[in-house]
Structure formats: structure tokens, C-alpha cells
Amino acid sequence: MDNIWNKQTIDILIPVIAVILTLIGGFVTWYLNEQSERIYEEYKRKEERYSELIRSLRGFYVDSFSKELTEQFLNQLNLCWMYCPDEVVHKAYKFLLMVHTDKKYPDDEKEKAVGEFMLTIRKDLINRKPLRKTELKPEDFKHLKAT
Questions:
Q1: 101 burial class (0-12, 13-18, 19+ CB within 10 angstroms)?
Q2: CB of 76 closer than 8 Å to CB of 53
Q3: How do residues 44-101 score in pLDDT, each as one tens digit?
Q4: Closest of 140, 146, 36 to residue 85, by C-alpha
Q5: Looking at residue 62, what DSSP letter applies?
Q6: What is the full DSSP assignment across 89-133?
Q7: What's residue 4's pLDDT?
Q8: In this predicted structure, what is the pLDDT of residue 34?
Q9: CB within 10 Å: which end of the chain, N or C, has fewer?
């Protein structure tokens, strides 16, 4: 009698375990797909933001100075606070400090600052990791205007 009971129990448990494993597998697959989609969407937002930043950099060069492009750069930088890592924000502000009209910096220092900014953007895009934490503080935010 014990053998029949064990066989009946096993016959019942096999389909139940199969259904449970199928549900767990489906949930894990769905979760990983959602994570992948979220990472891709965040990457696309960053790429768009960075493309606009790079396009509007032209506004800071003397031969093509454009208040409109400079304003676009500042607007895009403000939006970067939502999606971009701290280092990108810091490098952008360092670049802006170099091109600010109150103090004259040598061209090679300006070029280095923009190069560091571009390299930080590149590293962030290559990294493809979602933004998880920040150490930026409220006083780090600068409300700047194009002049």
C-alpha cells in the first residue's frame, strides 16, 4: 500500500512541480526582459541628451558663438541631472568655468576641459549601467544663463 501511495503522490507532484517551475521561469524571464528594456531606454535617453550637449558645444566657440546654442547646452545640462552620472555633471561645470567670460583661461586648458568632458560622456555610454546613486548635493546645481 505504501508503494501505491508514493507512486500516486509522485504522479500528482510531477505536474504540480512542472507548473510551478514554468511559472517561476516565466517570471524570471519577464523580470530580466524588463530590466534589459529599462537599461536600453535609459541608454537612449542618455545618448539623446549627450548628442544635444555635443551639438550645442559649438555655441561656445568664438568663431561660431551662439547664445541660442549656449542656452540649449545649459538646458540639456540641467536635464542631465536626471539621467547622467555625477562625473558628467562635474566635468560639464568644469568646462563651463573654463569658457566663462569673467576669467580668461588658455586655449589648451579649455581644450583639456572639453576633452575630459567628452571622455566622461564616452565612458558613461560604454558603461551602459543604469544610474543607481548620486553624491551630488543641492549646492552643486548651478542655474546659469547664456550671456
A1: exposed
A2: yes
A3: 888 988 998 999 888 887 666 778 888 999 999 998 898 889 999 999 999 988 887 6
A4: 140
A5: G
A6: HHHHHHHHHHH-TTS---HHHHHHHHHHHHHHHHHHHHH-PPP--
A7: 59
A8: 93
A9: N
CA angle, residues 70, 76, 93, in degrees to nearest 5 = 70
Residue 61 has phi, psi (to 5 degrees) of: -90, 140
Instruction: Summarize pLDDT for 90-125 with one digit per residue, the tens.
Output: 999 999 888 876 778 888 888 999 999 999 999 999
Question: Which amino acid is located at 137 in the chain?
Answer: K
pTM of the predicted structure, to 2 decimals: 0.73
Gyration radius (Cα) of the chain, Å: 26
What single letter denotes the amino acid at residue 38? Answer: R
